[in-house]
Amino acid sequence: MHILELKRLFNEIPNSNLNITIGHKSRYKITMDNRYIDLKNNRERLQQLHSRYIRNIVSSPENNVFFTEISWEDVKFRNSSNNTWMNWNFPKSVILNHALYSIKEEEIRKKLFGDTPFTREKEQYESLYNSFNKLPKTPSVYLLIMQAFDIITFESFISIIHSNNKIFSSIGKFVEIDEISNQESFIGLGLYKDESSFKNGKFYFKYMGYGVCLEKLCFIFQYYCDDSKVKICHEKASKEGKSFYSGHIMIDVENGLCLYGDMEENYVNFDNSIKQEYVRRKITIQLEYDNI
User: Fold this and answer.
1) Cβ of 275: how many Cβ atoms within 10 Å?
2) pLDDT tens profile 121-150
3) Residues 91, 75 contacting (CB under 8 angstroms)
4) What are the angstrom distances between the C-alpha of 142 and each of 85, 138, 162, 172, 187?
5) Which of 222, 253, 270, 283 has a CA-to-CA distance to 167 between 20 and 30 Å?
6) pTM of this structure
């Protein structure tokens, strides 16, 4: 690329979009490493869930709106008490239904999705419930549910980036994203009761510029969200805590899909009546094959 073309590229506000068609399939590897520390006795335990999943574009009901199916292809688990990786087969029966979109006009977004991407919370919750309700309510299933929320989070980031002009027009500056800030998601699946929830604090994106990832030109973003409120309700007890998470996401300039993303989440519960636990979660996703 000529130096003058590079200067023009970096000086212009990008016009990002989703350049994909029905039938487009992408395979990703996702790693989820959860470290739990008991704050009273300083004991630690580690759980790792490393998977591969496929995103399939199944339909396009509106211009720049794509319905997707996400399915697990390969899942491995291990913990601190057993260093041997175990293959899990039950996730292969689960399919997540979601959507990607690139809609700059706020009026059209509201017409299709409501005020925010999370206004469809009831619909998304019912879809997740139907996906996992056939599985037993066990810790292993909830770990998979946790990973499902991580996958959906990065999928939602893709849509928000392509539908938010103010992110690209403020290069190098953190911009608050109203569609995510203070939005509440319900996490009452598997082991937890329906009233369990995660309420975001103020959420910020920063467009950092262009880069290269997996030999592809990409947009690079940083994000963070502090002081999110978490409520976990069990049959016998409930606990409340706070979450602080941050990370990066790299978007393919050519087709608008995610090439790489990472997240680090720090969670602590502040209920003295139960076990106080600090949880540090590290998540990475990376594209392995595109349009397979």
Assistant:
1) 13
2) 455 656 776 777 778 778 898 899 889 989
3) yes
4) 18, 6, 31, 37, 10
5) 283
6) 0.88
